[in-house]
User: What shape does this take?
Amino acid sequence: MGDPHRKDRYGETWPQHRLDAYLQDLTRLRDLVIVSGGWAWHLMSPAGHVELKHAHDHKDLDLFVAGRNVAALYARLAELGHVRVPTRYDKRLRTPYEFHRYERVAEPDGHEPFRVTIDLFVGEPPVREIEGGWRVVHPRHLVTLYQTVHGSDKCFAVQAAIRLLIMGIDPVGRPELMQPLGR
Assistant: This one.
């Protein structure tokens, strides 16, 4: 969600074939990682919701891995066809977490190939286990990562979670995570 925030594009949805490719990889990695960013908000949202582009950022998959799981995760990423790619952020992020990017090319039937990008942070932020056995960065901590690790705090989920947390309301499972302000 690094692109300018355009309210005139509210209502656009993520293509299902892209979501499926990311979710396939995420499911294969779930026992080794903590989910962050847009996919964490996705997993914390009510089941069956429509994937609006401005609600959750699904351009990449932001993951944390504990140091003890790094080797196993690198092996699993290789099995899935991911390779490490250099970025302008290598060694330059203002964060306490070591950062690496991995990518693979997905070639879904009937669609153009595209990159599945994983932004990987080595570290153990506060964790919350949610329905389905997913481990996500705890919402209270996740909103703080938009100052250092994640790109845009303009998505509906981040804005809604901040408002809910200020009111003392747990954002997990709340429909507000998919709605623009005022709806």
Q: What stands out?
A: Confidence is low (pLDDT under 50) at residues 1-5. The chain has one domain: 11-178. The beta strands are 34-36, 61-65, 83-85, 98-106, 114-122, 127-130, 134-137. The domain at 11-178 is CATH 3.10.450.620 (Nuclear Transport Factor 2; Chain: A,).
